[in-house]
Predict the 3D structure of the following.
Amino acid sequence: MKTLFRSLLAAALFTGASCTASAQTAPAAPVAPAADTARITLNPALINAVNTQTFEQFRETVRPLIAQMAGKRVVSMGEGTHGTAEFYKLRFWLTRILVEEHGFDRLALENTYGDTYLLNQALQQRRSTPASLKPLMQRHLLAMWQNQEMADVLTWMQTYNRTHRRDVELTGIDIMFVTADAQLLQAGLAKVRNPEVQAATAQLLKNAQYNDNYWYKLSDPAFKRNRPEWLANGGEGYKAADKVLAALATAKLPRKQQEVLAGAAKNARLAFDVFYQYEVFKRNSSRDSAFAEMTKFVAGPRHKVIVWSHNAHVARTVAAAGDSNGGGTGDFLERMFQGQYYVLATGTAGGTFAATTDRFISPASVMTAHPLPQAKAGSWEASLSQVASPVYFFNTHQLGAQDLQRPLRLVGQTVGSEDFYSDTQLGKSYDALLFVRQSTAATPLQ
């Protein structure tokens, strides 16, 4: 389960008896202290009730939370599940406040850079209308983002950018499905008169298309893997992306185009890094470090970035015991943006959530509603659900002696992930937690 969150690529690459080298060379993880399972009662003084009836009422009740976020360069907003309507809605409202009132100008999703860039470009077209969103979202977003709550975010972005001089841009930090990255690079470098560059972009596109198609097939139980061919393709893809990235350093292109293509090349190289790491060092590759590298890139020297990703990624600590790939994305970002990183987790005790039966999510996966089982006894959720307020937040650093290792539910995008818990000390992982006692599955696109 941990690999679905923190090293999705390696989850498929390193499974099976024939691939044990990575496990043999990985350093032993420290033994975590036993989790505390006694139910706790939060100090009422810590609870900040949140009114969700209207955006205006919400804005007033989250002023203390916004005050903590406003001065940061990077604010991550986690999600306890990939398919909860309230997590999308409340993070949208928080994002809107940070953009409209505090100068944040980039929203980074757990979605591939190239596809998200193409979606953003379509949103910027003045002729675009909300009615055109559905096909764009289905083409460029992983299925977990294809819901009506996310459509509301994009509709707001369209309206905001038509009426403000400084646009808010949608961008991506994930490293799956990189064909769009390769297509951007081939088109953007088509006029560069260098046979080696043209050969490298053509090779990268070939490797990206093969790899993306392989990801789609991995969810088919009848698919017979050709692991040697996959490894070879991945190694070629890394070398091609590396050549393209080096060529961009001397290419004479307009500044904005140079930035976009550099992001695509960097994203593609990170996507194939798992194959490079295995081929050269016989070790795993950290998806969280890739998220952090892409976040640093899109932030650049001047942008203020909001990241939407799973709680397990944006945390400062690892999501599961035994994971030896470094900290969570938040740990890397804390070091990259010292004192300028803030992370909010979201959680729920029960209700429904949207998930897919596919083993690996893709833009074509189908998300349907499923029940969340009752929170595990002794978990954070079991204790937090006892608070009277249906929606509230609290600062984790004020938990004091109550901030012990306790199970925290981390639900992914797949059916069956709803029973996964990770022993977590909230204050070490997050700055605040926004809790929704009863939640509902994300709404299908209309």
Remarks:
- The two ends are 32 Å apart (CA to CA).
- Confidence is low (pLDDT under 50) at residues 1-5, 16-31.
- The chain has two domains: 46-171+305-439, 179-293.
